[in-house]
Structure formats: C-alpha cells, structure tokens
C-alpha cells in the first residue's frame, strides 16, 4: 500500500478518529461494533496526537500487530519491508537508529498529511469565496460584491501558495481529492496545478456560486456536483441555435420600439437582453418537470419585452399602447403600459405541453408585487390540490437596488417556508444593473451583494455575467432543477448594465460618467454571441441574418395592424380572469343579491359545533371550557355575540362549498381571546382541533392561520390569494386596526385602485379592530378617514337607478362598514360572497363590543329572509310622534352604545333619535333620505368618538348636505381636532367622552329652548 493511498484514507476519515482510545501505552484497535457505528471509516487517525503517541503505537505494534488498526499495521510493515515482527526483531537496528528512522518517517508523514489538508482547505476556500473573484461584470470596471480585494486564501498568484505552506514545486504533485468536491470527475487524484485550474473554471469564471452557508450537506453536494463536474456547462448546436433565436427576439424587439417611439418611455431591457432567453429556459425546464402554470411578477424594466416574447401577448396590443390618441374604454382608467399584466394559456414548443403564464400587474412600487404573486400561486396550488408545488410555481424578477432596499422582499422570503404560506420554492431573477436610478450601489446598500437578503432562508445564489448567454442558460437550468428537487427558493443574479438611463429620456452620464463611457463602447451581447456561434459553425451568417429579418417582419406587420385600434380595452390585459364568474363581456351574471339569512336548523347546528369539542379525548384548557359553555348558553337562548356571529357566517359558507381563509397575526385565538377557532390539546404538544372543519360531511375547507409578524407581506399575500378564486372568502385581520399602516402600499396601489387600473376584481376582506378605549394613540384608530378619502362615490351625486343598493356597490371601488351587531356582521360577510361581483370589504371591527352585554343579536335577526342592514333606524319611543323629535343623531360603531346610555340618563328617549350608519361607503343616500323625511322638524347631528379631523365627519358631511339639498346644517359632535388619534391618559379619555356626550344632548337643546 503506497503512502499517498494510505494518507488519503487518513484525511478522509480524520474527524471520527476519536473512537480510538489510548490504552496501556498504545493506540488500541476499536471493537467491531464501534467501527460499524463510525459511518464505515477505514483509516481513522487522531491528527492532534503528537509523534510520541505514534511512537507508543509503534512499540505496541512491535509486541502485538493486532493491537493497532490494520492501516497502521500495514504502515509499520512497510517500514520493515513487510517482514514479520519476529524476523524484524532478529535483524532490528540499534535502538538509537530505530528511533531516528521512525522519527524521520513520522516527520515525512506529518508533512504529507499537512499538504493534503492544505489542498483540501484550498478547495473549500474556492467553494466558499470563489464568487468574490469571479468575472461577473460585463463592463469589466466594477466588482459585483463592491470589493476588489482578493481573499487571501484564494490562489490567484504563485506567491500565495505560501499561505497553505506549499510552493511552486508542489504544483505538479498529485493530491487526493476529498469527497466534498467533484472537480476530479472519475479521478480521485489530481496535480495541484490542475486542481487550481478546475476550481477557477468552476467558481471564478462567469458564474459565482454562493451556497456554502446552507446547513444541509445533501443540498451543498448537489450544487457542487452541478458546478464542479468537468464539462457540465456544454450545449448542443440545437440548444445554441434556440438560444440565439431568443436573443434575437429580445434584442430586436427593443430596437424596434426605439426606432418607432424614440421619445417614449418604455423602460427597455437593453443591457440585459439575456433575461428573455433566461426566463424561457426556466419555463422550459420547469414544464418538462411537470409544471403547467407559472405566475410571474416583475418591475417595469423589460416588462414589455417579457409580455411580447415570454407571455407571447399579441404585438399589436402592445404597440397600440403607444398611440397618444387611443381612447380609454369604459372599463377603467387603465395604467401605463409598463405596469400592466397578462394571462395566457399556450403550448410550450420545447415540451409540447400546455402551460399557463400569468404576469401580474404591478405599480411603480417595485417589489410590492412579490407577496401578491406568492399568494396567487399558493391559491392555485391549494385549489388544484398541488400540495408539493409540482404543477404551479412562481417566478419573481427584481431590480438590484429594490431587492436590497425594499423591506417587503425580506417579508416575502420569510413566508417561503411557513406551512400556510409556502409556495414550495420560488425562482428569483435579479436584473442587476449595478445602479439604482442614479444612486451608486456603494451608497445604496450595506451588504456585499444586492442578493444577500436571500441568505436568511438558505437560498442558493447564482451570480452570472449577463454577457455570457450560455453561462446564464446553465444557471437557469440548475435553478429550475433545484426548485423541482428541493422545493426551496433560489436566486439568479444577472449582473448586467443599463445601456440607457432609468428610462430612455434620462441622461445617466451626469452621475455615472465612467460607467457610461464604457457602456457606449460595449459591444451588444447579440453581436458577440452570434460571432461566437458562427465561428463554431453552429449557425451561418446567412441563417443569422434571416432570423433577424423574420422577426423584424413580424414586428412591422403588428405595427401596421395596431393602427386599427381606436379604443384601449384594458380587459385584454387581465392577469386574473374569472371566465366562469362573469359573462362573456365581463359583466356580472345579474345585478341583484339574494337575502343573506339562514335556516334555524343551520344556526343551531353551527352554534352547537362552535360551543363543543368535536374530537373525543381532546383536553382543552379549563378557561376555554367555560367559554364554550357560555357559547352553548347563548345558542340555547337563541342569541349571538360577535364571535358566534362570525362562526355563523363562516360555517354557513363552508356548507355551501365556499372556501374560507382567515389569516393574520394571532387570528387563530383572536387578539382579544374571543375567537378560539383552533383548540390546543393541553397535554399533547402540537395536537390541535379546528371545530369549523367538523361542521358538515362534504363542506369546503376552512383555513385559519397565524401569520408572521408582517402586514405588508401578509396582506399582499392574501390579496393574491383572493385573486385566484372569486368563490372564496379571504380575510386578513390586523392585530390592531392601525397596523394596516405598514401595509399602506398594498391598500393604496392594489386594493383601492386595482379595479380601475387593471380591471382586477377582488373580494378580499380587511378586519381592522377600531375604537377609542382610552388605551393610547396606538391601537385605537384604524384610520377610517384614509379609506374614506379614497372612496370613489361622488358626494354631490345621488344615483337612483335599478336596485340602488347593488348598483351602488357595483359602481364603488370598495365597501366600508362598521357594524354594531353580530347579526349584521354575519350578514355582511355572507353578502360578500352572494353579490354577483367582487369588491374589497373594509370592516372596522370592535374591541370592547366583543363582550358588551348589549352588543348581542337574536337568531331572529339571522333567520331566512333577513339581510344586511346598511342603516339601522331607531325603533324607540320617539317613533310614535316623529314630528316632536328635536334631534337626529347619526353615528357609526361603538359610540352608539355610549349615546344610548347617555340618552337614557337624560330621559330624552322621546326627543332624540339615534340612527346607526352600518355601511359608511358607499353612502346609503336612499335610506338616509327616508329617515330625514320622517323627522322634518329635527336638527341634524353627526356624532363620532374620533377627532374632528379624523374618522368619518369629512366624508359624511357633504353627503348629508346633498340629501337635504343644503336646506339645513349638519352639526358635529365629537372630539376636537388633534394630531394623535387618541390620548394616552385614561382620565383625559373619560373627560373627553363625557364632554361630547353632554354636548350631544344638552348644549344644542338649550339653544333650542332659548330660541
């Protein structure tokens, strides 16, 4: 056995050598049982042992060859020329000479071991840090990691061999390769010179691989094999021709737009034309693996090119968007062309399989679309029963500055492996322009790469020079396969440049003169790659020119036909069509809403389930048992509290086959410990019960899931989930109402205006706990004024056409309610599904009213024939003589119960009417007019617990005046204007409430008496 062969075993299994124990002055052979449990090691050795230990082992071997491991037995036999110990002892040299020979042998062995260890460390250094010296910048002037420093443990010059205790003479020595590398292929040993050469090819060329932070050996080995195996990055002539054809389409599309509309913004892809073949490669590979639906999100740069050459939208539909005389259709205001999305089902020509591609519409808020895409992907997987993500997947494209700078990217990554939010792996493609708008990356991020945020979920990151199309294609193939094999996120960092400014009208040389001087000299990637293929003989010059002419002709013909378009039909740009929900023209099936009441038997059945534990031998907390008994008592008395009203809504919809999903922070129990939709076994960890899923034999599933401590990401996710299926009730609940402010981008850009911009119907429900309870500025107000300000109903126009309620809801951009009874809350949730269209619903939910003894409803308010009450009139004593009523107080929400208490205290039941607006927007003009006509002599008052510059007053005032045609004023009663939503002092809160309660019933009444 030669020395190198033996040492290879020593190095490979050195870490488990501790199973040997020093005993009786020598290293003893372990038992067969110990060896079998040591993962099959053959030649263990304790590297920390000194030479004295080896001498002791040698002496022990002299006495008994079986006292040491067979590898040491072989080694010591080699020293003695393979002679038996007896023969050796007869011809043994003197003790002094024997010691010198052994010492020399041990020194040599130690040197060989150290050299092998050094080579292993060198290999690991390239695997860990090779990406830092990879040739990633196509311009050759910047470092992708913002640092030109070469790590000291990477061999870039011969003099650095000394770092490992090696020298130039070692370059031609062969070394044993560890099992953690594949650079040798079928070879187990290579010369050091070849080892370094192969490592540089694998890790320091046009691809830089970050993966050694992943704490999974199998995954790391998989990546090593993909990038280290010799000759992996090779393509056939047919594959290269396909790549060239796709690059031609990508490049010539941008050239065509630049020629035809040189003064128009289009956020072109110049400088990263390789994105189009990259995406198509990912889709091809994924399609071959069984994926038949891909949902994509991206910023505006390159969107038109993706729509044209990946989604395959008709070119004439894209070109007509550039016509300044194009009139908008009635469907909405539309959006700029580089914000629009698309849905298309077609045949993938590479796999001959059907594939559906959906590009989500997205505003200029860059990464805002990320969680929306994830939510829609999760929904499609859920409804198709695709529990492992083998049929539906997502691709997200990013800009480098936004990927590093936008917090929603981090929030979205943190959803990637949560059970109720995972989409089983997303492929992220970063178009790394190496610049923001005009901001240099050195002052735009603190991390070396813009992609470092992905390390938080152990996603591998593949950096690649975008001017090397074949390297890009290989990385895309590996990424698609990674997603298929491991169902985890992966990031492709396309290091490229932006040939023009942020948009085509911008002058980038003002701020990046050196970069753009180089860019102006930079040869186009299509020209470089075509020249390479022509030189290889993969394509001829004539074939190349014919392919260009072919695509140019397609563009010209589409341009000519686009001139026939006179109207912008935004429906051509739908990213989430619901063909079975609407008519062929996109209109609702009807314009009426059936009653939302329920059968008594259904109410009783749901009530019994809500107040019990469906599973046997399931032990709940004693406190929860009391809550369930209280629910049972309510059901027996045919009454509802808030939690039971919600149960009735959800349970009845599940019975009708409507999936219900409730998501948010702590929604399973409820922030205020009122819901308890998930019961926890008190003695068995992780054993839970969801009674709502035990209501009916063939019911729809109920999903209730606590979310991560995120609003922006989670609300975006639920919005995307609601896009996939109109026949599902999707709700997001804020822990407190004001928590929605960190998700304001989703509310502003997607929920309030989504239908107007993108004809994107959505029935998502926001539950926002709201109410002034004296608990301080935070967690008091859900900021209803912000939602009302964005409502599109006209305060000066009272429509009276058809079914007023349904038509008004159809014409609104969203619906806002503040219910005061559990029955009305149940009705509005059911109405959300029974309406023939979908609108976002904002519900300002209560806190103290959850257990208020007067905030109860009878089953009679929910039985068949009943419906949601947009306005709840006063049915008290004053109704007997409406002409004597002196004041009508309109209000909404919790303050109603304060007002009724105060009215009773002042004995004004005959003089003051209190009317509740349950639906605030769209404003119930018709019902308000009926009430005002009923009390002609009463003055009009609006009372709210919020401050005057907040809440509802600025919204309702002009609408009330429109109803009364400005014949009488509407007085305000409530808190004075303020900067903060609420006081943090309990005493101040009580005094404020007392003051405006007295105003509501005393001050103006005294003025009446004086007059």
TrEMBL record:
<dbReference type="GO" id="GO:0005634">
    <property type="term" value="C:nucleus"/>
</dbReference>
<keyword id="KW-0560">Oxidoreductase</keyword>
<keyword id="KW-0324">Glycolysis</keyword>
<dbReference type="Pfam" id="PF00676">
    <property type="entry name" value="E1_dh"/>
</dbReference>
<dbReference type="InterPro" id="IPR001017">
    <property type="entry name" value="DH_E1"/>
</dbReference>
<dbReference type="GO" id="GO:0045252">
    <property type="term" value="C:oxoglutarate dehydrogenase complex"/>
</dbReference>
<protein>
    <recommendedName>
        <fullName>2-oxoglutarate dehydrogenase complex component E1</fullName>
        <ecNumber>1.2.4.2</ecNumber>
    </recommendedName>
</protein>
<dbReference type="InterPro" id="IPR032106">
    <property type="entry name" value="2-oxogl_dehyd_N"/>
</dbReference>
<keyword id="KW-0106">Calcium</keyword>
<dbReference type="InterPro" id="IPR031717">
    <property type="entry name" value="ODO-1/KGD_C"/>
</dbReference>
<comment type="similarity">
    <text>Belongs to the alpha-ketoglutarate dehydrogenase family.</text>
</comment>
<dbReference type="GO" id="GO:0005739">
    <property type="term" value="C:mitochondrion"/>
</dbReference>
<dbReference type="InterPro" id="IPR005475">
    <property type="entry name" value="Transketolase-like_Pyr-bd"/>
</dbReference>
<dbReference type="Pfam" id="PF02779">
    <property type="entry name" value="Transket_pyr"/>
</dbReference>
<keyword id="KW-0809">Transit peptide</keyword>
<dbReference type="InterPro" id="IPR011603">
    <property type="entry name" value="2oxoglutarate_DH_E1"/>
</dbReference>
<dbReference type="Pfam" id="PF16078">
    <property type="entry name" value="2-oxogl_dehyd_N"/>
</dbReference>
<dbReference type="GO" id="GO:0030976">
    <property type="term" value="F:thiamine pyrophosphate binding"/>
</dbReference>
<dbReference type="GO" id="GO:0004591">
    <property type="term" value="F:oxoglutarate dehydrogenase (succinyl-transferring) activity"/>
</dbReference>
<dbReference type="Pfam" id="PF16870">
    <property type="entry name" value="OxoGdeHyase_C"/>
</dbReference>
<keyword id="KW-0460">Magnesium</keyword>
<dbReference type="GO" id="GO:0046872">
    <property type="term" value="F:metal ion binding"/>
</dbReference>
<keyword id="KW-0479">Metal-binding</keyword>
<dbReference type="GO" id="GO:0006096">
    <property type="term" value="P:glycolytic process"/>
</dbReference>
<feature type="domain" description="Transketolase-like pyrimidine-binding">
    <location>
        <begin position="640"/>
        <end position="852"/>
    </location>
</feature>
<keyword id="KW-1017">Isopeptide bond</keyword>
<keyword id="KW-0496">Mitochondrion</keyword>
<dbReference type="GO" id="GO:0006099">
    <property type="term" value="P:tricarboxylic acid cycle"/>
</dbReference>
<dbReference type="InterPro" id="IPR042179">
    <property type="entry name" value="KGD_C_sf"/>
</dbReference>
<keyword id="KW-0539">Nucleus</keyword>
<keyword id="KW-0832">Ubl conjugation</keyword>
<dbReference type="InterPro" id="IPR029061">
    <property type="entry name" value="THDP-binding"/>
</dbReference>
<keyword id="KW-0786">Thiamine pyrophosphate</keyword>
């Amino acid at each position: 056995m030669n020395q190198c062969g033996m040492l290879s075993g020593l190095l490979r299994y050195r870490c488990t050598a501790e199973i040997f124990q020093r005993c009786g002055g020598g290293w003893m052979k372990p038992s067969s049982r110990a060896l079998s449990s040591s993962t099959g090691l053959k030649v263990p050795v304790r590297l920390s042992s000194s030479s004295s230990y080896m001498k002791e082992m040698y002496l022990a071997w002299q006495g008994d060859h079986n006292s040491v491991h067979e590898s040491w037995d072989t080694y010591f036999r080699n020293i003695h020329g393979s002679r038996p110990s007896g023969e050796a002892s007869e011809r043994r040299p003197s003790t002094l000479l024997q010691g010198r020979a052994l010492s020399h042998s041990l020194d040599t062995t130690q040197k060989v071991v150290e050299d092998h260890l050094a080579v292993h460390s060198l290999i690991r250094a390239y695997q860990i840090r090779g990406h830092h010296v990879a040739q990633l910048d196509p311009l050759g002037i910047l470092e992708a990691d913002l640092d030109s420093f070469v790590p000291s443990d990477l061999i870039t010059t011969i003099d650095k061999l000394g770092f490992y205790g090696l020298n130039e003479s070692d370059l031609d020595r062969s070394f044993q390769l560890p099992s953690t590398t594949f650079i040798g292929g079928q070879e187990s040993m290579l010369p050091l010179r070849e080892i370094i050469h192969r490592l540089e090819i694998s890790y320091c060329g046009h691809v830089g691989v970050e993966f050694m932070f992943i704490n999974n050996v199998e995954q790391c080995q998989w990546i090593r094999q993909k990038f280290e195996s010799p000759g992996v990055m090779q393509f056939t002539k047919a594959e290269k021709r396909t790549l060239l054809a796709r690059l031609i389409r990508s490049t010539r599309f941008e050239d065509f737009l630049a020629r035809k509309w040189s003064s128009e913004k289009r956020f072109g892809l110049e400088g990263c034309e390789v994105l189009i073949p990259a995406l198509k490669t990912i889709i091809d590979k994924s399609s071959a693996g069984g994926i038949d639906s891909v949902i994509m999100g991206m910023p505006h740069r390159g969107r038109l090119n993706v729509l044209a050459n990946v989604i395959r939208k008709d070119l004439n539909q894209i070109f007509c968007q550039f016509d300044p005389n194009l009139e908008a259709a009635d469907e909405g205001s539309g959006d700029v062309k580089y914000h629009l999305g698309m849905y298309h089902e077609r045949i993938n020509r590479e796999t001959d399989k059907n594939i559906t591609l959906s590009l989500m519409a997205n505003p200029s808020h860059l990464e805002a679309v990320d969680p929306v895409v994830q939510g829609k992907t999760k929904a499609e997987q859920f409804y198709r029963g695709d529990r492992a993500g083998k049929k539906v997947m997502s691709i997200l494209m990013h800009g480098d500055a936004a990927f590093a700078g936008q917090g929603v990217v981090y929030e979205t990554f943190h959803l990637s492996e949560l059970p109720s939010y995972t989409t089983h792996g997303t492929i992220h493609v970063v178009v790394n322009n190496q610049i923001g708008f005009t901001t240099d990356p050195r002052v735009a991020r603190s991390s070396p790469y813009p992609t470092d945020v992905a390390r938080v979920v152990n996603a591998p990151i593949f950096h690649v020079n975008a001017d090397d199309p074949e390297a890009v294609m290989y990385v895309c193939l590996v990424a698609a396969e990674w997603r298929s094999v491991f169902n985890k996120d992966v990031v492709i960092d396309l290091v490229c440049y932006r040939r023009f400014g942020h948009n085509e009208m911008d002058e980038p040389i003002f701020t990046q003169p050196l970069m753009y001087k180089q860019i102006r000299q930079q040869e186009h990637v299509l020209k470089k790659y075509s020249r390479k293929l022509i030189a290889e003989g993969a394509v001829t010059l004539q074939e190349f020119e014919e392919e260009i002419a072919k695509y140019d002709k397609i563009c010209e013909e589409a341009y000519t036909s686009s001139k026939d378009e006179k109207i912008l039909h935004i429906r051509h740009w739908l990213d989430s069509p619901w063909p079975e929900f609407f008519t062929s023209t996109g209109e609702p099936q009807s314009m009426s809403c059936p009653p939302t009441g329920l059968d008594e038997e259904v109410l009783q059945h749901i009530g019994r389930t809500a107040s019990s534990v469906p599973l046997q031998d399931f032990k709940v907390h004693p406190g929860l048992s009391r809550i369930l008994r209280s629910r049972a008592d309510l059901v027996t008395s045919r009454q509802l509290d808030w939690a039971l009203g919600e149960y009735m809504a959800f349970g009845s919809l599940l019975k009708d086959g409507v999936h219900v999903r409730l998501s948010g922070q702590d929604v399973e129990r409820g922030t205020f410990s009122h819901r308890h939709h998930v019961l926890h076994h008190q003695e068995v960890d992780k054993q839970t019960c969801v009674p709502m899923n035990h209501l009916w034999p063939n019911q729809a599933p109920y999903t209730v899931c606590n979310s991560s401590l995120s609003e922006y990401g989670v609300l975006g996710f639920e919005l995307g989930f609601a896009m996939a299926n109109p026949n599902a009730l999707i709700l997001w609940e804020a822990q407190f109402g004001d928590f929605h402010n960190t998700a304001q981008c989703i509310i502003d850009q997607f929920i309030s205006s989504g239908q107007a911009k993108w004809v994107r119907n959505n029935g998502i429900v926001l539950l926002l706990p709201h109410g002034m309870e004296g608990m301080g500025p935070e967690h008091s107000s859900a900021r209803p004024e912000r939602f009302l300000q964005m409502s599109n109903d006209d305060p000066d126009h009272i429509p009276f056409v058809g079914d007023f309620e349904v038509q008004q809801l159809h014409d609104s951009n969203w619906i806002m309610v503040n219910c005061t009874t559990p029955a009305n809350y149940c009705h509005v949730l059911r109405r959300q599904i029974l309406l023939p269209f979908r609108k976002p619903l904002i519900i300002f939910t209560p806190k103290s009213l959850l257990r208020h003894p007067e905030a109860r409803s009878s089953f009679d308010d929910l039985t068949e024939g009943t419906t949601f009450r947009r306005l709840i009139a006063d049915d008290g004593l004053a109704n007997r003589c409406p002409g004597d009523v002196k004041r009508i107080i309109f209000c909404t929400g919790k303050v109603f119960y304060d007002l009724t208490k105060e009215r009773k205290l002042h004995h004004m039941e005959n003089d003051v009417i209190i009317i509740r607006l349950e639906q605030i927007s769209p404003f119930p003009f018709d019902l308000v007019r009926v009430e005002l006509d009923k009390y002609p002599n009463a003055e009009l008052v609006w009372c709210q617990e919020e401050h005057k510059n907040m809440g509802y007053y600025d919204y309702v005032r002009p609408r009330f005046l429109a109803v009364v045609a400005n014949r009488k004023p509407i007085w305000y009663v409530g808190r004075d204007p303020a900067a903060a939503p609420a006081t943090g002092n309990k005493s101040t809160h009580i005094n404020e409430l007392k003051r405006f309660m007295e105003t509501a019933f005393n001050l103006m009444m005294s003025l009446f008496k004086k007059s």
